[in-house]
Amino acid sequence: MTFPRARPLAFITGASSGIGQALAARYVQAGWRVALVARRADQMREWATQQGWPADHWSVHGADVRDEAQVLAAASECLRIHGLPDVVIANAGISVGVDLSLAEDLPVLRDLLETHVMGVASTFQPFIAPMRERGSGTLVGVASVAAMRGLPGHAGYCGAKAAVVHVCETLRGELKPFGVKVVTIAPGYIDTPLTQGNDYPMPFLMTPEAFAHRAFKAISAGVRFRVIPWPMGIVAAVLRFMPRWLFDAVVGAQKHRKKRRR
Questions:
Q1: What is the CA angle 165-169-170, rounded to 5?
Q2: Which residues contact 227 (CB under 8 A, 6 or more apart)?
Q3: Looking at the domain that runs over 9-252, which CATH code has it been given?
Q4: pTM (2 d.p.)
Q5: Which residue pairs from 248-257 have beta carbons closer than 8 angstroms and sit at least 24 positions apart in sequence?
Q6: Alpha-carbon span 165 to 146, nearest angstrom
Q7: 147-197 confidence digits (pLDDT tens)
Q8: 104-137: string of b/e by CB count within 10 Å (b at 16+)?
Q9: Which of 16, 235, 22, 218 is nearest to 147 (CA)?
Q10: Sheet (strand 138-142) strand order
């Protein structure tokens, strides 16, 4: 199949559900081509077909972002059939609680770090040099408001998302002289399979579609860092600058909830 290279291209990981799926739909709506990457390739292909999109506007690439070889193969296939993307969105993620007093949770911590940190690095790596040579392109790391501070029961998730923020910040400084933008998006509570089992209040909960619309605008504008929705940006700022003694007192008073497995 011949793909219309005159249309811009977005390469999106974690595209089989939730935020990734909504982002894919928003980009196609805007007239872009999309290269969709996820472990559940058949499910992703079935969903994309059901959308009625033109067949030459999308492709599916099965890959687990924890496996560098799979991600590099998906990127190579994308480059071969589509060409170099204009936007690369490292979105794949999992949400799992971690109790570091349990030896059996150490592999869980490793899984979180490999998914979020190595997954972002593996997603970006194949496109950095070509974008730098071209002198344009945007790399997007999907972090979280949870990156702002360490929350009880979430050492892995908070730590991994904080690493995503700093990886993106580092790349932003390295790539700016070459015309390549790096955008960090930090979602608050989005109504996806990752949050639907939460048994605690989720302020400012928004739909994936509303999130995708705001993220699309932020990415198009080339913002450095954006919390979505904006009220959670205020929460994030408060968390970030709260004195440690006060933060410790607040989180120490909270009941530690049972870990959720995904």
A1: 120
A2: 145, 186, 187, 188, 233, 236
A3: 3.40.50.720
A4: 0.91
A5: 251/149, 251/151, 251/152, 254/152, 256/152, 256/153, 257/97, 257/153, 257/199, 257/200
A6: 11
A7: 998 888 889 999 999 999 999 999 999 999 999 999 999 998 888 766 666
A8: ebeebbebbbbbbbbbbbbbbebbbeebbeeeeb
A9: 235
A10: 58-62, 33-38, 9-13, 87-90, 138-142, 181-187, 225-228
Name residue, tokens 């392109």: 137
- In the numeric block, the tokens 């089989």 are attached to 16
The answer to whether 16 and 40 are in contact (CB under 8 A) is yes
Q: How far apart are CA 258 and CA 168, in angstroms?
A: 31
Those residues with Cβ within 8 angstroms of residue 190's Cβ, 6 or more apart along the chain or in another chain: 18, 19, 205, 206, 207, 208, 211
**Count of residues making up the chain:** 262
The predicted structure's pLDDT at residue 2: 57
Give the domain ranges of the chain: 9-252
Secondary structure tally for the chain: helices H, strands E: 9, 7
Going by the DSSP 8-state scheme, the letter that residue 11 receives in this structure is: E
In the numeric block, the tokens 């011949």 are attached to 2
Place of tokens 């204009």: 86
| Catalytic residue annotation | 157
Q: Token pair of 56, please?
A: 């030459």
- 213: tokens are 């619309």
